[in-house]
Amino acid sequence: MADPYNSAARPPNGPRLDDSMVTTAFELPGYRIARNLGVVRGITVRSRSIVGNFLGGIQTLFGGNITIYTDLCEQAREETYRDMAKHARMLGANAIIGMRYDATDIMTGLTEVLCYGTAVVVEPLR
Question: Distance (Å, rounded) from C-alpha 60 to C-alpha 9?
């Protein structure tokens, strides 16, 4: 299967995707969708080390925010978001609409984190 992040050549002077142009909504106020480029996604599978699990277990004894797991989740989301945006840029998108996160346990201690949305080219309304 082809690598979606590296298989398409990005236009040399193509549109730039900016974080402010990524939304969970299906439209961007002040812009119209000129082209729909399809679904883009980023995916990662993460696990916590034995040491991390041990420290997380100790934190559960005291309750509250289990920071070692919070940090792991945030890193996974950031990585998948970055990969999704890279995929969209490779297609020539300057915006992503309908962005979502999803997570699935593959097995005990392994979690897949997915970030996906629809890559689009938008133009300012006149």
Answer: 48
- Order of strands, sheet of 95-107, starting from the edge strand that comes earlier in the sequence: 31-46, 110-124, 95-107
pTM: 0.77
Q: Can you say whether the dihedral through the CA atoms of 65, 66, 67, 71 is positive or negative?
A: negative
User: Average pLDDT per run of 10 along the chain, which is 126 residues long?
Assistant: 49 66 94 96 79 57 67 89 96 96 85 95 91
Q: How far is the C-alpha of 115 from the C-alpha of 24, rounded, in Å?
A: 11
